[in-house]
Specification:
The complex is a heterodimer of chains A (392) and B (292). Chain A has 392 residues and is of the alpha/beta class. Chain A has 12 helices and 17 strands. In chain A, the strands form 6 sheets. Chain A has a 4-stranded parallel sheet with strand order 9-8-10-11, sandwiched between helices. Chain A starts with a helix and ends in a 15-residue tail after the last strand. A two-stranded antiparallel sheet of chain B has the order 1-2. The chains are: A alpha/beta (392), B mainly alpha (292).
């Protein structure tokens, strides 16, 4: 009798203990460094916001599914001051000292590239996100993957085909001297030639340009029916303001980086309607059922739209990691195997990697149409038809 | 075409002149090199943005709010840090060099403080962006306002220095601080008024800039550099020459790019800067013998 009682109480205590353990499941710690200060700082919020939204959503749903067991997630973060050398030290520290369970990606191509060898050395997988360069293909495959579809050679080729299909016969190219712009230009110019599109204006300008009067006058005088502005954020703003002032008439206008920022439309309003930019995600693609809910949740939390490139890519990289961990648990080799072979269901539709590259998402173009970003190329993913730019 | 370029040069020049004016006033009277000057421009830009988005206050009115806030910050810095250090000549002499480091610290605090408070997300708003056409020039309203306000302030400052008694004492402190004190100029008062004015002008420039550029916590540094180039071209502490040099830089940049290529912008600006330092270290318009 007493023995039975004892046994009962032991079982009861055990059950309580087990329940307690389940409730206080150790959080999964995910480390990353971000360019919170310095040259790239402006880009950081769009990415950090996406990470934190993901964290909220996962924790609200009971935690991250680690091979069948749900555990809460928490981030361990540092500021790399936009310096790749700092980022390298931070990721070493995250792996060896902080002993985080998983890694999330930092911002920018140079920092991604600098990290690749560290990840290989520690055999620690990380899904990258915002890096965009043909150099990515030279990274040894294994522990890093790039979900972006903004790879300069593809951008050049697709853009030329897109322009041709819209009846463009001549294009003025104005390009920032920074790497991504120059890389895209080096592929775009031959691609345009191949499509029979003339390039009457092909000029470079420095990142700290303050006035585009000369270049835009030259563009207007050339009569080109497309203006391809391979710009970074500050000159994207400058370009739009001055193009309005000087009445740029080309019906096809592309601005490279910055046009997806919320502040771009805030500052420039209707004048930037029908501007084309680079990007492969839109909340309005009905074939991607997760796209709109992500957009709505982001907007509800931050009171601004997610950046169609950086926020979307950052969120996608976490979705990929999440789905890999659900199957593979926290074992690094199993995660590597899972990311390399699985097909992932993301806000940008299905994603699958071959080597380091996402081979499923097509290189696409977005257009600002009445305040929202619509995919207008290629036809397989487009959400709206391309509209010529008729005024500023 | 050429009138359009002329307009572009005038707008660029007036902004350079205005930003440099504030820096030059502070350097002239206090011998403090304010590396955080561009960050005050940034503060002015945020004042304009928040005043408009939270209170619906148009930037024309924010000009005064930004001037008051930045001027007040100048007063705080003067009373809190510099008054005591400047009152003893031995400390003051060391301070000229130390101010560089000190203001660098202020700059880091301002940038990251704003970044923490408002995040580093770029901001922007629309104001006076309709295009006006006259005399072969197409100009948006906000750039016309920038030009107008900058011209009025630069001209007003020159007239003030030329005709107002306080302006005379300010010039006296710039030229010979000790002698000015001997003949009865209240150096402390002049210094305090100047630092407030210099900071306030930076704030005003920030409001003007915010109408045409994106606003971020890190937008200020290029303005610091531009202002430094301008006042070295004009001659450190020479207010009139600084304003002339600001316009000169705007013209050289705009027409230089038109004549060569946009990629030569830095070579033009910094080439001129280095050439002036080598050939006329007292500044393009400075006297051969620096009164000091």
């Amino acid at each position: 009798m007493t023995l039975l009682k004892k046994l009962k109480s032991i079982i009861a205590a055990g059950a309580v203990l087990a329940a307690g353990v389940a409730q206080a499941e150790e959080p999964v710690r995910i480390g990353y460094s971000m360019s919170l200060t310095g040259l790239f700082a402006q880009a950081a919020p769009s990415q950090v916001n996406a990470y934190e939204l993901w964290e909220d959503q996962v924790n609200a749903a009971g935690g991250l599914d680690v091979g069948g067991v749900k555990r809460p997630v928490e981030f361990v973060t540092y500021d790399d001051q936009s310096n790749p050398a700092n980022a390298v030290r931070i990721y070493e520290k995250l792996i060896t000292e902080d002993k985080v369970d998983l890694l999330a990606a930092p911002w920018s191509t140079p920092i991604h590239l600098a990290l690749a060898p560290i990840l290989s050395r520690h055999k620690f997988p990380m899904v990258g996100n915002t890096a965009a360069s043909v150099q990515l293909r030279e990274v040894a495959p294994g522990y890093i993957w790039f979900p972006t579809a903004v790879i300069p050679d593809k951008v050049g080729e697709e853009l030329a085909a897109f322009m041709k299909s819209k009846g463009v016969t001549s294009a003025a190219i104005l390009s920032n001297v920074l790497p991504l712009s120059q890389e895209i230009k080096s592929f775009l110019v031959p691609a345009l030639e191949k499509q029979g599109i003339a390039v009457p204006v092909n000029e470079n300008y420095p990142p700290d340009i303050k006035d585009l009067t000369t270049l835009l006058t030259q563009t207007n005088e050339s009569g080109a029916d497309a203006v391809i502005m391979l710009s970074y954020p500050s000159d994207s703003f400058l370009f739009a303001a001055q193009a309005k002032e000087l009445g740029v008439k080309a019906p096809f206008v592309l601005s490279l980086i910055g046009a997806t920022f919320g502040s771009y439309q805030q500052a420039l309003g209707e004048s930037v309607n029908n501007i084309v930019t680079v990007g492969h995600w839109s909340p309005n693609q009905a074939a991607w059922p997760k796209a709109k809910p992500f957009f709505d949740a982001y907007k509800a939390k931050y009171n601004e739209a997610p950046d169609a490139l950086d926020s979307a890519l950052a969120y996608m990289s976490m979705e990929i990691l999440q789905q890999a961990v659900a199957t593979a648990g926290l074992d690094k080799e199993k995660i590597r195997e899972a990311v390399s072979t699985m097909t992932f269901d993301t806000i940008n539709g299905p994603i699958k990697f071959e080597g380091v590259q996402n081979t499923m998402t097509p290189t696409s173009f977005l257009q600002i149409q009445d305040g929202s970003l619509e995919l207008v190329w290629p036809d397989s993913v487009k959400t709206k038809d391309f509209r010529p730019k008729t005024g500023w | 075409m050429s009138t359009q370029l002329l307009f572009a040069a005038l707008v660029a020049g007036s902004l350079y002149a205005l930003v440099a004016l504030g820096l030059n006033l502070v350097y002239g009277t206090l011998r403090l090199l304010n590396i955080a000057h561009g960050d005050l421009v940034m503060i002015g830009a945020y004042v304009a943005f928040w005043m408009l988005s939270l209170l619906g206050m148009p930037p024309v009115l924010s000009l005064f709010a930004a001037a008051a806030l930045c001027g007040g910050f100048g007063w705080l810095i003067y009373v809190g840090i510099f008054r005591k250090l400047l009152s003893t000549p031995a400390l003051a002499r060391r301070l000229e060099a130390n101010s560089l480091i000190l203001f660098y610290g202020v700059s880091v605090i301002l940038q990251n403080g704003v970044s923490l408070a408002f995040t580093s997300t770029a901001r922007g708003y629309q104001y006076l962006n309709e295009v006006h056409r006259f005399a072969g020039v197409a100009a948006s309203g906000n750039r016309l306002m920038l030009l107008g306000v900058a011209l009025v302030l630069c001209l007003g400052m020159l007239l003030f220095l030329r005709f107002h008694l306080f302006g005379w004492s300010l010039r006296a402190v710039i030229e010979r601080r000790d002698a000015a004190a001997v003949v009865g100029v209240d150096v402390d008062r002049v210094q305090m008024a100047t630092i407030c004015t210099g900071f306030a002008i930076a704030g005003v420039a920030g409001v003007l800039v915010s109408m045409t550029e994106q606003i971020t916590p890190f937008m200020g540094f290029p303005f610091t550099i531009a202002a430094l180039v301008v006042i070295v071209l004009g001659g450190l502490g020479n207010i009139f020459a600084g304003i002339v040099a600001g316009f000169a830089l705007g013209f050289i940049e705009t027409f230089g790019i038109a004549a060569t290529s946009a990629t030569y912008r830095s070579i033009l600006i910094y080439g001129l800067f280095v050439a002036v330092l080598l050939l006329r270290p007292q500044g393009l318009f400075g006297k051969a013998i620096q009164a000091r």
